[in-house]
Design brief:
58% of the residues lie in helices and 10% in strands. It has 250 residues and is mainly alpha-helical. The termini are far apart.
Length: 250
């Protein structure tokens, strides 16, 4: 399909702004919705860098689809920006698990489409992460090593990292800067979610999913081809218990 020069320039200007900022507000991105040719070109530009342009609420977003995309946030950046100077991959994967649990808390199962709760308090979120870690411990060690190869996650190291955190002062309102606690770690994950516009804070210690997060969840988070079955693995024992508690049909 051939496009006139003006249409190409309009699409490229919009894509350039999207590529630079990762998000364009609806007023600026109205052209994306109003002009089919511009939208088609922006989508094509995004695909060339392994990304997807998508609307979420009043925003137009650029979502990286693969790790090799130039717009993918690297592990080193995450460690440097959000974790301590001696952070290793296990620290980062524990952050990922905490994010997965945060998102999962808003849905009644990993196959849900719409959220079933309005907000999540920090203390409840911490408790849910603890439940997931305890769930990991229910796996046979040999089976867990097999899963580690399948998912490229060192589940044993993740459990060790969580267990090694000091939880004696978890109820304290203020944490020392030198204290590595589960609560302080959860606040680190909270900052990551807020910075990435995946969560908003509506009250002290109360978080909600953003429209951006909901769209990403609907389009990718629940899809097996994107999460590689990690959600099913983390919630396996919970699903098994629910099925076991269901009354048997006569």
């Amino acid at each position: 399909m051939r496009y006139d020069n003006e249409t190409v320039l309009k699409a490229f200007r919009l894509y350039a702004e999207l590529a630079q900022r990762g998000v364009v507000e609806r007023e600026e991105g109205q052209l994306y919705l109003a002009d089919d040719e511009v939208r088609g070109l922006v989508d094509q530009f995004a695909r060339e860098v392994d990304c997807l342009a998508m609307t979420a609420g009043d925003q137009l977003l650029l979502i990286p689809l693969v790790r090799l995309s130039p717009f993918h946030v690297s592990n080193e950046y995450l460690k440097k920006t959000y974790l301590h100077t001696k952070a290793v991959n296990a620290d980062l994967y524990l952050l990922y698990v905490a994010v997965i649990v945060f998102v999962g808390a808003f849905y009644d199962s990993y196959q849900s489409v719409e959220p079933t709760r309005d907000f999540l308090p920090m203390d409840e979120w911490l408790g849910l992460v603890q439940e997931r870690i305890e769930g990991l411990k229910e796996h046979d060690p040999e089976q867990l090593r097999t899963y580690e190869k399948e998912f490229s996650y060192n589940w044993s190291a993740i459990m060790e990292k969580w267990d090694a955190m000091d939880d004696i002062k978890e109820t304290a309102k203020k944490q020392s800067g030198n204290t590595i606690s589960r609560l302080s770690f959860m606040h680190t994950v909270r900052r990551f979610l807020l910075d990435q516009q995946l969560a908003d804070e509506i009250g002290e210690g109360e978080l909600v999913l953003t429209e951006r997060a909901k769209i990403v969840v609907q389009r990718y988070f629940m899809e097996l081809q994107h999460n590689r079955g990690i959600l099913q693995f983390l919630y396996q024992f919970e699903e098994d218990r629910k099925n076991a508690e269901k009354p048997k049909e006569e």
